[in-house]
Amino acid sequence: MSETIYLDNSATTPVAESVIDAMLPVFDNTYGNASSLHGAGRAAHVAIDAARAEIAERLAVAPHEIVFTAGATEADNLAVIGVALAAGEQGHIIASSVEHHAVLHSVAWLAKRGLDVTIIDVDQDGLVDPDQVQDAIREDTLLVSVMAGNNEIGTIQPIDRIGAICREQGVLFHTDAVQAFGKIDLPMETVDLLSISAHKFHGPKGVGFLFVRKGIRLTPILHGGGHESGLRSGTENVPGIVGLAAAARLAFEERPEVTARMRGFRERLIDEVLRIPGTRLNGHRSQSLPHIANFSFQGIEGESLIMRLDEHGIMASTGSACSSPNLEPSHVLVAIGVPLSMAHGSLRISTGRQTTEAEIEALLDVLPRVVEDLRAISPFKVGD
Amino acid sequence: MYTEKVIEHFRAPHNMGKLEDYSAIGKVGNMVCGDVMWLYIKVEADDNGRDVIRDISWETFGCTAAIATSSMVSDLAKGKTLEEAIAITNQDVAGELGGLPPVKMHCSALAADALNEAIYEYMSQKEREIPEALVRRHERIAKEVAQLEKRYQSFLEQEPDTAAESAKTKPCS
Questions:
Q1: Catalytic residue among B107, B114, B115, B119
Q2: Among A6, A68, A376, B162, which lies 20 to 30 A Cα-Cα from A39?
């Protein structure tokens, strides 16, 4: 076990060695601009094409349906805003209340510009009801955006059913699959747009892609040299794209083994953490991504908890208001009805391919003591 | 993000816990907003008959900065006369900690406010003449609580129990 225990893999992951090995030669050997006609440019172009083909094959889609971006925030923006702009900034968009801010803030931006927006609530486990999506769809609905798996609480959405409803109604369906990619099967047949980010599955930061089903009209948000079929101008991040493909390869190859291990860790964490008095699990007990477990502890505040764990070399995250730049508690925890007092005391533990059983046991050893310690400082006593 | 001094006080806070034989208590903050601080003071007259904070302690629900400022304000006020303690400001608390991130400055205000409220309560109990500055701060704190509750009204409505609790600033039961 290393000195530090990194359990914040939903925030980002360490780049895998095989990914670094794939990327390193690209920096100096495949340095060309993929748009250049000469040998160096052609070599870069070949590398990008190979990466695109590999990713497309894994998702069983066509290579030209993969549009490389600088990550999932850009992919989400391109999907949501691109659809709205292509429709002349008129119409209606539906999104769930637990979407990532990259979707929610894009939707809010469009609402300010006059588009109609419906935000679908979730139940206490964070699930979107497909019937509610069906009911919200109108004649002028352009797009429905519901994430595949939630980044804070791990709840897996029924995107197969939501996608099928959208297809039937002739509405585009976008899913942010950032946390789900490489962890669960994605029902690509009924997805029109899908966002991915490499650094969430042991790839490099600053690269991702948007799957854009053939025939969908999107207006680009970046203008320039017309790269990526005109959808995303800007010289391609060749090492990043190669790294993205290498990380996807690793994620798919290791998936059965890694996700089985993660599920075991999650079960163990839930069993043990819920033994601590005044604790709750946030999110769905079983319909969850394997790598995310989110808890709340009564009477303590999450930022202090994170800092106390950090003293023990354990790195995790919280949805506490005190930890956010605007001092607002997590919109996801609020959406699933976690009382504000409990939302302040939330802890997200997210595992990665490198997480070991010893690390989980070390956390389980430290956590009850840290919780007790902070509760001793707090005026709110549990069980009073 | 945090200074070493902040981390030091967070790791090993001074004067932590509840004071059993306290003279007065200052309760500030709001559970809904995520910071609650209770400050206990024990006041005794010194040889010259001046009121002195003989002992002080606190209980805080809050972030790293809230805990560190609780610890610091208790250090600053301990052994001081009430007159001296009244003069302690949030800038003093933050300054002694080597500064706080801008978004966390309200935590230092909370600590200074808790001290203010404890002294206000003590002077009210003893029917002392309360300095005008202390009254003004007390009024400002009450006004800010009202504003916070207005800001978080939608949350409070969802959580009538928490709203009632925070209005009374009583412990969760």
A1: B107
A2: A68
